[in-house]
User: Fold this.
Amino acid sequence: MNNPFVELTVKNKVGYITFFHPNRNSMPSDILSLLQKTIIDTGKNNDVNVIVLQSGGDRTFCAGASFNEVVTINNQDAGIQFFSGFAKVINAMRKCPKLIIGRVQGKAVGGGVGLAAATDYCLATKYASIRLSELSIGIGPFVIEPAVSRKMGKMAMSEMTIDAESFFSTDFAKDKGLYADVFDTTEALDDAVKVLAEKLASYNPEALSNMKKVLWEGTDHWDSLLLERAKISGKLVLSEFTKNTLKRFR
Assistant:
């Protein structure tokens, strides 16, 4: 696999949405836009009762924002538009009428943690450590904060944000509620995801949809909230500190 993609595969009423980028599954704006569209379209697909969100490759679920694209941002509108991509994906997941199971086979950084937190139920391997590195590069996890805090709590969110250069273990992620269960191998993870997804897909779709609404009660303001957060990141990404830091990672 060398070319980025987002694709949907449907098996036994389960829609498997897979995203991939050769640079550690980082997320440039075109992949974010395609992922948002795929989630929305799959939510309307009558052949799908449950969604699994997963990425290609082995040991990295998602490295977050594409540094190669971020470093080219040269005005605030472009910055807002880029970070709005993550906001739109999270909101698409939130508003999707179908339950979304996360399959996290490897490390999640920044926006990747936000994607895992925006799933309704998340399973992972023992290799799926997490990090919020944004403060260390001069911005902050503003867009994903509501999703991460909702799932893991404000104190865990604060701890990861402030200790921005450390990876937090899968035990930490499970203990704080990001992962429902952790498996020793990808094969065991895939078996568990398949069993759970197909079991849920056999349930009453109307009940699943109504349960989804209940699980996300109190988040109706996120459309505007996440856009406001994107504006903060869109401004900070223009700072000399961030530009110089990102150039070292390219």
The chain has a mean pLDDT of 96. The beta strands are 5-11, 14-20, 50-55, 60-62, 100-104, 107-109, 121-125, 130-131, 181-183. The CA atoms of residues 60 and 106 lie 4 Å apart. The two ends are 21 Å apart (CA to CA).
